[in-house]
Design brief:
Elements: E1 2-6, H1 14-28, E2 32-37, H2 46-54, E3 58-61, H3 68-71, H4 74-91, E4 95-100, H5 107-115, E5 120-124, H6 137-145, E6 149-153, H7 156-166, E7 173-175, H8 182-186, H9 193-203, E8 211-216, H10 225-238, E9 242-247, H11 253-262, E10 269-271, H12 278-283, E11 287-290, H13 299-307, E12 311-314, H14 319-322, E13 330-332, H15 337-349, H16 351-363, H17 370-383
Parallel strand pairs: 1-2, 1-4, 2-3, 4-5, 5-6, 6-7, 8-9, 8-11, 9-10, 11-12, 12-13
Length: 387
């Protein structure tokens, strides 16, 4: 079984990490796994390439940038079709799985699979409530629907949005929740959480006894950092021992730093970049925050649930499907700084209640196991190969 995973991006976000985990699982089934993605001159793809190789897959260079401007340029689109077709001809995969961080990306790759009649699965990792698809998006997805093709979304909310925005055939769109390897992830949590927490505070230059509110997310405007910045001054006046940590990188970092300076909270908000020690970071945190304006099936939520870290999150799109309001965590209105402020204020005032919610969230983790996710995913993929 030759299985080709295609990405129109090469960063460190949720889409890329999902592909690495899926590639490893497919290799474990003795599939011959190939992963293709853009390789930039600045070397940003190298970390992803290492992870793909560690997963037991073969890397391929496929220059199909996911930049919106490129998608709107017909010359780039034609090049993407040609480059993908050349790769397909060389590898001759039995099945192609295109993973899209945005619904109107990867159109050239989808079209190439259609033209060459290769069975195709398309995972839509994010479908925003408000979407103005690039020209040709509907046409390309309609082409795909004429052949052996199915679409996967990470939540029922995103499935509904995909049906609405892309006019996909309902019987071809499946909801498969993201999953986490709980035992493997928990094995990375320090045995002595208190000692590890004290050490982390020193590393971050924070005072002993600081209470951490941590956000693990790409730094992008849809992750809600503008609302958080507005809330921090009010919270730190009431809770002077509270500090905020943002773990992740992204194009919004410069704006976030500028906002921090404008609101004079540089000493209260630490931007620590992409981290490989997220279990340790969450284990030391009193609250895990996710302020997104929209989400698919956020892996960051599952990480916090696994760590037993109390959750405060927005009520955006799929989040209430994972975090039940007032049962597994506190939810606030997405994009509303005042609602975010009140939710965090409640959480910081009542740690005992938050610990109870975190325990409830942990008990729900079997519903979001990685084994279950991959079992459903492979069943869907294999259905495309049935006679």
């Amino acid at each position: 079984m030759r299985y080709l995973l295609i990405l129109p991006c090469n960063g460190t976000g949720g889409t890329e990490q999902y592909v690495c985990r899926l590639a490893a699982a497919a290799a474990g089934r003795s599939w011959q796994v190939h992963v293709a993605f853009p390789q930039d001159a600045d070397g940003t793809y190298l970390d992803l390439a290492r992870q793909v190789q560690q997963a037991g897959a073969t890397c391929h260079r496929l220059q199909i940038s996911d930049a919106a401007a490129a998608q709107r340029d017909k010359r780039h689109y034609v090049l993407h079709v040609a480059r993908t077709a050349a790769l397909l001809t060389r590898i001759r995969p039995d099945l192609v799985h295109v993973n899209l961080p945005w619904p109107d990306r990867g159109l050239g790759a989808i079209a190439a699979c259609h033209f060459l009649r290769v069975p195709l699965a398309i995972t839509l990792h994010v479908v925003p409530p408000e979407l103005a698809p690039a020209p040709g998006t509907h046409r390309v997805h309609r082409w795909a629907a004429r052949g052996r093709c199915l679409w996967i979304t990470g939540s029922h909310a995103n499935r509904a949005l995909a049906l609405h925005h892309l006019a996909l055939p309902p019987d071809r769109v499946q909801c498969i929740y993201n999953g986490i390897d709980g035992p493997q992830w928990q094995s990375q949590i320090p045995a002595d959480r208190a000692a590890s927490g004290r050490e982390l505070l020193k590393e971050l230059g924070l005072p002993a006894g600081a209470r951490l509110v941590t956000c693990v997310a790409r730094i992008s405007s849809e992750k809600g950092y503008r609302e958080l910045v507005q809330a921090i001054p009010h919270l730190t006046r009431e809770f002077p021992e509270v500090f905020f940590v943002w773990a992740g990188d992204g194009g919004g970092a410069a704006e976030l730093r500028a906002l921090s300076a404008r609101y004079q909270i540089q000493d209260r908000l630490r931007l620590i970049g992409y981290r490989r020690d997220v279990p340790r970071l969450l284990a030391a945190s009193e609250i895990a925050l996710l302020a997104s304006h929209f989400e698919a099936s956020a892996y960051a939520l599952l990480e916090a649930m696994t760590a037993g870290t109390p959750l405060v999150a927005s009520d955006a799109t799929s989040i209430p499907e994972i975090v039940r309001p007032e049962v597994d965590g506190l939810l606030f209105r997405a994009g509303d700084a005042c609602s975010l402020l009140e939710a965090l204020r409640q959480a910081l005032r009542d740690p005992a209640r938050m610990r109870q919610l975190a325990q409830s969230a942990q008990e729900r983790l079997p519903d979001f196991s990685q084994a279950n996710t991959f079992r459903q995913t492979f069943a869907a993929l294999e259905s495309l190969l049935a006679p």
